[in-house]
Each structure stands twice: as C-alpha cells, then as structure tokens.
Write a structure and sequence with these properties.
13 strands, Rossmann fold, alpha/beta, binds nicotinamide-adenine-dinucleotide, globular, seven-stranded parallel beta sheet, binds uridine-5'-diphosphate
Length: about 325
C-alpha cells in the first residue's frame, strides 16, 4: 500500500489500544502492539490474530525496546483508578520510565510519537470547563498522584525531547472514554453501572453522585487520536479530546437503569479520596486545529456499550471473566 507506515502501539491490548490497532490495520498499516497484559487482554485483538499486518509482543515498557517503526502511539498505562492504585509505584514507572524508553526509541528512529495523556493532569480543577492552559490542582501525595504526577512528568519529558532533540511529538489529553472492550472488572463507572444494571444488582454511586464527568464514545476518541497524529508537525498539543456533554454520576446511574430496563436500585458508597468534583473538556482547540468534534451522543454510545456487555455476560454465564 502507498503511504503504508510501520506503527507501534504500546498498551495495544487494552481498551483504547485495541480499537486503535483495529483502525490502523483497517487503513492498511503494519501494526506492532506491545503490551504486558496488566489490564489488557489478547481477546480484545482476536479478530487481528491471523492478519499479516498485525503482530503482538509481550513486553513491559519500563524496559528498553529495540524495534524499527515510523510512528509510536504511547498508550501503555492502566487507566482505571482501581488498577492504577493497585501498584502505584509501577504506575509511575510505567508513565515515566515508559515515556523515556519510548522517547529514546523515537529519537533513535526519528519517529513521530503521540502520548496518551489525561484530564487527570488537571487534578480536582478550579477552572471549568478545563482549557489546555490551566495548570491543574493535583494532590502530590494522594492516592491518584501515582497516575496524575506520572502523566504530568511524561508530558514534561515529551515537551523536553521536542525542544532538546527536535523530536516530532503530539500530546493528547484524553477525558473519560467508554465503549466496547472496557474490562468488565476494571472498576470504571460506565462498565460498573452497566454490569450492575444488567445483573439487577444495586448501582454503586460513590458519594451523593453530584460529581460530574463528560463521557466520550470510543470511536470519536480514536478518530481524534489519529487526527492529532496526522496533523501538521508544528501542532504538538497538548490538546483536550473528549465529549463536552457534562452529566452528574447520579444522572448517569438513572440513564443506565432506564436504558437497560433494570430493577436495580441506586445505593450510595463512600466517595473515594480526591475524587474530582467536576470535569468537562473545553474542546475549542481540537475543533480549530483538528476540525474534530464528537459525533456519538451519550445515549447512542451507551446503547452500543450495553449490548456489548450483555453479550459478554451471556458468554460468561458462569460468572468468570478472563
Ligand atoms: P487500559 O487499562 O484498558 O489499557 C492500558 C494497556 O496498557 C493495557 O493493555 C495494559 O496491559 C497495558 N500496560 C499497562 N502497563 C504496561 C507496561 N508497563 N508495559 C506495557 N503495557 C502496559 O486503559 P485504556 O482506557 O485503554 O487507556 C489507554 C491510555 O489512555 C492510558 O495511557 C490511559 O492513561 C489513557 N487514558 C484513558 C482514558 C479513558 O477514559 N479510557 C482517559 C484518560 C487517559
Ligand atoms: N531506548 C530504547 N530503544 C531505543 C533507544 C533508546 O528503549 O531504540 C531507551 C534506552 O533505555 C534509553 C532511553 O530510551 O535509556 C532514553 O534514550 P536516550 O537516547 O534519550 O537517552 P540515553 O539514556 O540513551 O542517553
Ligand atoms: N464512580 C461511582 N461508582 C462506581 C465507580 C465510579 O460513583 O462504581 C464515580 C467515581 O467516584 C467518579 C466517577 O464515577 O466520581 C468516575 O469514576 P471513574 O473511576 O470511571 O473515572 P475517574 O474519572 O474518576 O478517573
């Protein structure tokens, strides 16, 4: 294929990575997925298994990696608070050592590299909606710090490799994203609520549920990611990518109960420490520079996601997920 690239996706067996690998292969690129399967699963990539354009290596990005590619999407890092807080030191190592290794690789190859950063770098924000120039309010010592500070340091490293070594970089600040291939047990709110609703179990709202989030469907997010990678070299970000439709967690619980016709009741569990009160992206920069805007409404996206988890639960009728 003309314009075919060799593309490395770290964390490619995870939720976002698996969608990205599928899109890139469908565009005719030669895709190498690197993953240590900490939260990812080969099953997410089953349909690519026999595709000659696709390859997987089991590898931890905190160790050096020597391969030959044209572009790197650096997604390796657990994203759910439950998982990234399970082994906080490893989470920071993955973000920081992982970034150094992937930047070193990009430098040796003169490859373009995109960092999957996060809205968490804004911490519990005082500015609303969050714009890219807001510097954030992160608790350095709290339970979310391993992830937030790791991702902040990774952004600094990306920027410094750009300044110091002229590396072509892209920094993408991803806001809450949901859809098929989320791990059923990863503890994020959309997957938790859908599974509880489908099983007619209590829906676990943390705190009063008046905290807000803005949920982006995965296909919109991945389109934003590739648009950023393919944008002109001068545009390095950081750029917010997310859906600006803001909703309270309580309202999300009600919406999911309604969509699934569930008998579930809403219960209230303790609010985790440092849980951000409000989160919503200002996406003017993405609209202006990438001509990107999300297209899938929350209702449409949730319907697709409910149907995915419904199938998964039917397949795993004995209750075992793997
Ligand atoms: P995920 O947990 O489903 O995927 C992460 C992948 O990285 C998994 O396959 C995991 O096994 C792999 N991984 C973890 N540590 C690794 C290591 N040391 N070496 C190699 N592989 C490793 O999470 P996701 O939702 O797909 O998130 C992907 C990226 O996007 C992450 O960097 C995350 O911080 C970022 N992000 C996601 C969201 C979201 O809402 N999904 C929001 C903000 C940022
Ligand atoms: N690295 C890698 N693959 C490569 C080149 C480098 O994994 O193809 C790693 C290597 O571990 C190195 C890190 O990237 O320590 C940073 O590389 P850089 O060249 O920036 O710095 P170095 O530490 O080599 O001076
Ligand atoms: N949450 C909840 N019940 C759950 C899981 C999460 O009420 O079972 C809340 C959580 O406290 C937070 C929001 O939902 O306010 C989003 O949580 P998630 O872990 O999905 O992502 P976060 O945006 O906090 O990283």
């Amino acid at each position: 294929m003309k314009n075919q690239k060799k593309i490395l996706v770290t964390g490619g067996a995870g939720f976002l990575g698996s969608h990205l690998c599928k899109l890139l292969v469908s565009e005719g690129h030669d895709v190498l997925c690197v993953d240590n399967f900490y939260t990812g699963n080969k099953k997410n990539l089953e349909e690519l298994r026999d595709n000659p354009l696709f390859e997987i290596i089991r590898h931890d990005v905190t160790f050096p990696l020597y391969v030959e590619v044209d572009e790197i999407y650096n997604l390796a890092c657990p994203a759910s608070p439950v998982h990234y807080q399970h082994d906080p030191v490893q989470t920071t190592k993955t973000s920081v050592h992982g970034a150094i290794n992937m930047l070193g690789l990009a430098k040796r190859l003169n490859a373009k590299i995109l960092q999957a950063s996060t809205s968490e770098i804004y911490g519990d924000p005082e500015v609303h909606p969050q714009t890219e120039d807001y510097r954030g309010r992160v608790n350095i010592l709290g339970p979310r710090a391993c992830y937030d500070e790791g991702k902040r340091c990774a952004e600094t490293l990306f920027h410094d490799y750009h300044i110091q070594h002229n590396l072509r970089i892209k920094i993408m600040r991803i806001f809450n994203t949901y859809g098929p291939n989320m791990h059923p047990n990863d503890g994020r709110v959309v997957s938790n609520f859908i599974i509880q609703a489908l099983n007619n179990e209590d829906i676990s709202v943390f705190g009063k549920g008046d905290q807000t989030r803005s949920f982006c469907f995965v296909s919109d997010l991945i389109r934003g990611m590739t648009s950023l990678m393919n944008s002109e070299d001068q545009f390095i970000g950081p750029v917010n990518i997310g859906n600006p439709h803001e909703i309270s967690i309580f309202e999300l619980a009600e919406t999911i109960i309604e969509l699934t016709n569930s008998k579930s009741k809403i219960i209230h569990n303790p609010l985790p420490v440092d849980d951000p009160v409000r989160r919503c992206p200002d996406i003017s920069l993405a609209q202006e520079k990438l001509n990107w805007t999300p297209k899938i409404s929350l209702k449409e996206g949730l319907e697709i996601t409910v149907s995915y988890f419904d199938n998964l639960l039917k397949k795993a009728a004995n209750g075992a997920f793997n």
